[in-house]
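Good morning N.,

You mentioned wanting to compare the apo and holo forms, so I went ahead and generated the holo version with iron/sulfur cluster. This is what I fed in:
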Amino acid sequence: MTDSNDLVLPEGINYECTGCGKCCGGWAIPMTQDDYERISEVDWGEKNDKFKNQNLFRELKDYEMANTPYSYAIKPGADNRCPFLVDNLCFIHSLNGPKFKPSICQLFPYSFNKTPTGTYATISFVSMGAINNSGKALLDQRDYLESKLGEFKQLYPDHEPNWSSITLATGVSLTWDEYMLLDEQLIGCMSDASKTFEDRFIAGSDLLIDEFNKKRERLGVKGNVSPALNWQDKQLIKALRKIYFPVKPLGKGEGDFNFYKFLAQVVLNGAFPVNIDLPGHAYSIEKLSKIPFPQEDPDISSLIYRYFFSRLFGKHYFGAGFGQLSVITGFHHLAILYALIKLQSKASSLQRGSATVSYLDVAAAVRQLEKRLGETSLDGMAAATFELLMFSPNRMRRILAFS
Ligand code: SF4
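and this is what came out, ligand included:
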């Protein structure tokens, strides 16, 4: 019998830092008050000329601080990377050791999710070590991960997710034990290497809808699904892409799904074509849908599998793990994210001048998506809109088939 404090580790996920320095860019590194006092006390300009007369830190704004343990941030340099990254190594770490770094850097890329059956450990796929499955299996790093869990608890003492009111669908409750039976089967669907990922998601969706029908005996979702996207499907792809794969840096509130903006977008643009934008380029989703996605490439398949397995294993897609979504909507959202990864990877390959999607195209799409998922918040209205738009297994199938 597992206790909610027992650490549960995923199979088949490896990790070690590859020292590439890529995790140290693209975001303002947040710091707790203690981090700030410890690090800002040092005269960094005396240690390295690059820091002379530099204003390295800033106070977080109220909305950035809300519900976090952080109050300051390291300002990114002109290259949008952390200024303490010197010759691809952390200068703070090199000079003062790992314990002197900001708490978030000490913990990254590990994350933990406390549930009634244990605390599930996963890693962030923003890290290239996670993308490439580098190093030892997490299963063989239990002692180290126990120490990281201790650090996580110190940093987030209020991490007590409430799993008492999870739902299979809006208004259809699920006990944790019922969920865990489904969880095992969903992971089984995702692990079935004899199927394409599209079919694995469809098998998972079928399983959940069967469970829903048993509980409600009313939803008729099977039958032939028209492969053509309707205008709502298209606008949903557009709205999700805007928050998960932004072309320009996002301002306050722009990175979250906004119900009213979505409505306005549907009303104003419903009939217009939908493009996937990359800096300097725009590709129609119809054009992208015709480009093949390499289903047989073992490295791409391994990455896609590990990424979605990790989300399922860590319970980072429904309930207290993601926006309080129902299990069905949370799972369909994952399937649509897979479709977005495909479209984004195809657009990247075209931008490179090739119609063949490479491992690097997919890795970049997964990293960007993972980063944005960590930054996005789903408020009650946005979550309700997700339920409305993504509960439909037919929509999920159409988008999967189209991508
Ligand atoms: S403080 Fe060090 S580890 Fe943290 S982001 Fe900057 S360079 Fe990377």
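Residues 7-155 form one domain.

Happy to go through it together on a call whenever suits you.

Best,
F.
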